[in-house]
Design goal:
The chain has about 450 residues and is mainly beta. It has five helices and 28 strands.
């Protein structure tokens, strides 16, 4: 048992430093070169969600033994990692040779082996000191649409143009059955190679054997929009009652040492992203009373929190956030601010040392930087497409009225700035925000 736990933990550490992803099984159909312009369909009854895409179905390649000694999971997937005990280094090498004889391309590395066929991606980890082998795979789904984005086009979109990888980085279409018809989108498992990342970031000194890894992103793709989930959790549901479905994804945050996660929603062509931190939890989508919810299972595996989804608007941008009916289980909320920056006219050189932008928070706070060290803030209200922002500076008052002209785009209507805290801001100015999205 300790050996199994050790392997699982070592895999987890590798994946915390890389970008994880997931997949689905099934034989491939002939790919089509048609374009991807699928219309967003009216929302069907009910909701759809899937937590975990790894190691689904029967693999189209040989396994080390007839049955794994155990099947473990990291995250929400119940069938992630096949673990084999008492595997010698010679048996590990022989197994890779068997895969090659079956037409599988194999790249053996310092920590693991990455293997692939045209329609399947395979990761194999071996721990010599414990004689343990673990593996998982992502295979093309039988639900991959014939008239959607091809895997060749996905490769052009998501993979390095000039790669150092000796194996192809072509993504595999893992779209579940019926998902494309329902949402107009597809889900891909897209591998990436650390040596390409080091080259792009100009760190050639990191290109060493011990730093060679392949990782993978699970991506929802619809036309030119995408979401990814390293938790392998996607959902589709009409969250705001407008008759069309939103696409939801869960993924880990960017922090180290503190558990954080992102809840992202694609509503039509607009993306909403909110950032949370809490005690460590295993997250997944679920359903309660016909509604999509997020479930958080704590490490004791006995306690599961329920988080509901609130739909609204925020400076004209669709906003979808999590809340807990039980306030004692609410994760501390650190919602992403929406920053709008002066765009219609040249920023004034006299104020180059200032960030000529305004930040809005879902809690009703607006803020701006007066000097490099002085951030001022006040409160705002949003009603009928108009923002009324106010702040008190002792006896002096600040009041800015702006009209929302498009999602994340505001035009200043009037400025009352008694203390002169916003010298760069004038009536008629347009400030805009690029809606957060992952590509």
């Amino acid at each position: 048992m300790l050996k199994k736990l050790s392997l699982v933990l070592s895999i987890l550490l590798l994946f915390l430093t890389l970008v994880s992803c997931g997949a689905v099984p099934g034989p491939a159909e002939t790919e089509s070169e048609s374009d991807t312009g699928s219309e967003i369909q009216p929302a069907p009854d009910g909701i759809w969600f899937q937590n975990g895409f790894r190691s689904k179905g029967t693999p189209a390649f040989s396994l080390p033994k007839a049955e794994p000694d155990s099947v473990s999971s990291i995250g929400s997937d119940d069938h992630s990692y096949y673990i084999y005990e008492d595997i010698s280094e010679e048996q590990y090498a022989d197994y890779l040779t068997v895969l090659e004889s079956e037409g599988v391309s194999v790249r053996r590395m310092y920590h693991e082996s990455f293997c692939r066929t045209d329609d399947c991606l395979i990761w194999i980890y071996y721990t010599p000191s414990e004689s343990l082998l673990g593996l998982f795979w992502y295979a093309r789904s039988a639900g991959a649409p014939a008239d959607g984005m091809t895997e060749q086009d996905a490769e052009l979109s998501f993979c390095a143009g000039q790669t150092l990888s000796p194996l192809s980085l072509r993504p595999v279409d893992i779209t579940p059955e019926g998902f494309y018809a329902r949402t107009g989108g597809q889900i891909f498992a897209a591998p990436s190679y650390t040596f390409d990342t080091f080259t792009e970031q100009d760190y050639p000194g990191l290109i060493r054997d011990e730093n060679e890894h392949y990782s993978c992103r699970i991506l929802f793709v619809r036309d030119d929009k995408s979401l990814y989930s390293d938790m392998e959790c996607f959902a589709a549901a009409d969250l705001n009652g407008d008759g069309t479905e939103e696409i939801c994804a869960l993924r880990y945050g960017y922090t180290s040492g503190v558990f954080t996660f992102m809840f992202e929603v694609l509503s039509g062509s607009e993306a909403s992203a909110n950032f949370y931190h809490s005690a460590h939890m295993t997250l997944s989508f679920g359903e309660k009373d016909g509604k999509l919810i997020v479930l958080g299972r704590k490490q004791d595996a006995e306690t599961t929190n329920e988080y509901w989804i609130r739909a609204g608007s925020f400076i004209g941008i669709p906003e979808f956030s999590l809340y807990a009916p039980d306030p004692n289980s609410t994760p501390a909320l650190n919602a992403l601010n929406k920053d709008v920056t002066l765009t219609e006219r040249e920023q004034e050189p006299e104020y180059d040392g200032l960030l000529q932008a305004i930040s809005f928070e879902p809690s009703g706070i607006w803020a701006w930087r007066v000097t490099g060290d002085n951030l001022m803030h006040g409160t705002f209200e949003e009603a009928d497409g108009v923002l009324t922002c106010s702040a008190d500076c002792g006896e002096e008052k600040i009041k800015v009225v702006a009209r929302i002209e498009a999602p994340g785009v505001i035009r200043i209507v009037s400025v009352q700035d008694d203390p002169g805290a916003l010298p760069w801001l004038h009536p008629g100015d347009v400030l805009s925000n690029q809606t957060p999205s992952e590509s």
